[in-house]
Amino acid sequence: MLDKERKQAQFPQLEMSHLLYGDKEGFDNFIERQTFFDNHPLFKVDQNFFNKSRQDQILINAQKTIEAAKNLDLANKKYYTPNVLCPQGNFISTVHFAMVIPAFQVLASDDQIKRWMPSLKDFNAFGCYAQSELGHGSDVQNILTVATLDKTTSEFIIHTPNVEATKFWPGELGLYCEFALVFAQLIVDGKNHGVHPFWVRIRDKDTHRPMEGVQLGDIGPKMGYAVKDNGYLSFDHFRAPLDSLLNRYIKVSSDGKVERQGNPKVGYASMLYMRNILCDQYTKFAGKALTIAVRYSLYRRQFKDDNKQEILILDYQCQQQKLFPLLAEFYACIFGSIKIKEIVNENFNRITQYNDFSTLNLTHSILSAAKSNYTYFVANCAEWCRLSCGGHGFAHYSGLPTIFFEMSPNIVLEGENTILNLQLARYLLKQLQNTVSKPESVPSYFQFLSSDTVKIQDVTTIESLAALLGCNCSILTKYAASKFMAHSDLQDSWDTKSGIALAKAASTFIPYFNMICFIDTIQNKAKDTKEILTVLAQVYGITMLLNNSQGLLLKNQISSEQIRLLQDTREQLYPIIRRNALCLVEAQGLSENTLQSLIAPKDGNVYENMYNYASQDNSLNKQKVHEGITYIKKMKEVNAKL
Ligand SMILES: Cc1cc2nc3c(=O)[nH]c(=O)nc-3n(C[C@H](O)[C@H](O)[C@H](O)COP(=O)(O)OP(=O)(O)OC[C@H]3O[C@@H](n4cnc5c(N)ncnc54)[C@H](O)[C@@H]3O)c2cc1C
């Protein structure tokens, strides 16, 4: 049955695969690494993984990490997608490779990099990123851990002054890492020089016990995310050598001289790396959820038509309405993320090679907004895919609950999404001002702010949709600016009077940005996929406008007839997507082992899969009479006495 679906697709799947992974090389790299996971017995999906205790899950993934490290170059960025997408649950080393090493690359001096990088890469110096505290996560500037220079011994004394200052949440801290990159207020001669990173050993090399003056452990179970040992860490006047301070941009001499060099905003540069990974790699989990949901919807039939034939659930318009806008948004986010990766890499090269910070603000702002938008999208997409699979979506064997659990923390970590949106709002206001005072300085991505009117013939073309999305954001930015400026105390206005308007305006930027990246891909990269991509881009643009066109409505830039036309057009496009849906998700090239789902095989019988698992493999059934029955028998006695 699925082969019939595959044959009716109207585009070359391989061309689409190359577009989704950036190019042929990107796709080939993915398939090469996926093949390793598919063929290795340790990485074969085990549906009983979720019947195991957290302790066992952690041990299994530690074993997997070592096996992966033996066979694969885990620090190699080009393989990051399969590394996060293929194995069941996280590797033990994701924070180390995705946060600690990049932070070192940006913040450590050449000498420090020379000294530490080999052991960081081969795992001999396994570290966590210890920034957040119990009392402060988003507000990094006000964390309470202190690192005070002791001139008599040329050491820093790292100290946790109270419970609130305990480091809390760092991944890989709870059980495993030997080192921590500790962010603390630097105090020299009684003067606070702000928050800086210190690289310190926190567990003994031989015994793995905490070092003297260090208390640490795992923080306990969370919503999913079971194999990650998020931890707590506190210091009691812990002594660290002078060169524990990563000192590319700040130097402290043993006699207390503090010298700063470069841009103080450099701290952002390492965060950019992880946020980029969240946009670039983790967005692909939405594609995994969509593959499961679309395939399952092509197996599942409910109710009969007039010819007494049972109807495929993907043929219901309401099911299409659940999945197709998400599919279009997935493509939009992927093309947006490819552009963002280019922007981030260019900025990273400018900083590290030429000490040039001129594109840092632009990069930081776009990336903040994208991280916020994409991580909301992925969690939302996983949840809707789950719902679209009815009861079976609720079971771990569908592969869907775990995607939601593993992806939803991304909304909060590495910059909480509302706060990131507000950071873009600040940048939008600045560029809005520049459109009047310094128009030549406004980056091309923000030139839409110079106009709050739009003239179009046909609202349904991709170019018109991009213009409308830009105009919507521009009007909402002006509205937010006027709310913000209406009060004399600007800080109070920002915090308590205009936050909603500012966050709203910012949340409409990425739909515009994604749309122009989508159009760029269609016009400059696609060949025989242009037509179907144009349909997806239309569905994406229309959906974004139907979700939020408040700005356009405020200034009468869109009429109720046009909104109706958008709605009708989207519905008319669904049959085209329906015909191509299977190949649109399969263009990602995800194997069954990667999908980890019994309800979405490439071919086969989903009901037999589920039945065989329940009746033969489910480890809870192995004990023919479960030990819990002794308690149930007691319950009968209790009830008898009542
Ligand atoms: C799974 C997971 C892994 C993590 N890993 C690490 C790690 O490896 N290392 C590490 O250092 N940390 C880590 N963290 C911590 C994480 O970075 C913080 O939790 C995150 O930055 C959010 O900060 P917070 O908890 O202080 O949230 P808060 O800032 O307290 O947010 C709570 C609410 O207040 C709102 N709010 C706060 N300030 C404002 C404002 N100015 N304007 C409007 N609204 C506001 C937020 O929008 C949110 O709704 C991890 C967290 C999780 C969940």
Going by CATH, the homologous superfamily of the domain at 123-261 would be Butyryl-CoA Dehydrogenase, subunit A, domain 2
Mean pLDDT: 95
How helix-rich are the residues, as a percent range?
A: 40-55%
Q: Which sheet architecture does the biggest sheet show?
A: 6 strands, mixed
Distance between the termini: 58 Å
Instruction: Figure out the total of helices.
Output: 23
Q: Based on helices, strands and strand pairing, what is the structural class?
A: alpha+beta
Second rung of CATH, namely the architecture of the domain at 123-261: Beta Barrel
User: What is the fold named in CATH at topology level of the domain at 123-261?
Assistant: Butyryl-CoA Dehydrogenase, subunit A, domain 2
- What value does the Rg take, in angstroms? 27 Å
How many strands appear in the DSSP assignment?
Answer: 13
Low-pLDDT parts are none
- Bound ligand species: flavin-adenine dinucleotide
Content of β-strand? 5-15%
Shape: globular
Protein name: Acyl-coenzyme A oxidase
Domain Acyl-CoA oxidase C-alpha1: 268-429
InterPro entries: ACOX_C_alpha1 (IPR055060), Acyl-CoA_ox_N (IPR029320), Acyl-CoA_oxidase (IPR012258), Acyl-CoA_oxidase_C (IPR002655)
Main location: other
Describe the structure.
- There is one protein chain.
- Helices cover 53% and strands 10% of the residues.
- With 642 residues, the protein is an alpha+beta fold.
- It has a domain at 123-261: Butyryl-CoA Dehydrogenase, subunit A, domain 2.
- The strands form 4 sheets. Strands 1, 2, 3, 5, 6 and 9 form a 6-stranded mixed β-sheet that branches. Strands 4-8-7 form a 3-stranded antiparallel β-sheet, with no helix packed on it. Strands 10-11 form a two-stranded antiparallel sheet.
- Helix 6 packs antiparallel against helix 7 (110-121).
- The longest helix is centred in the middle third of the chain and has 38 residues, at 317-354.
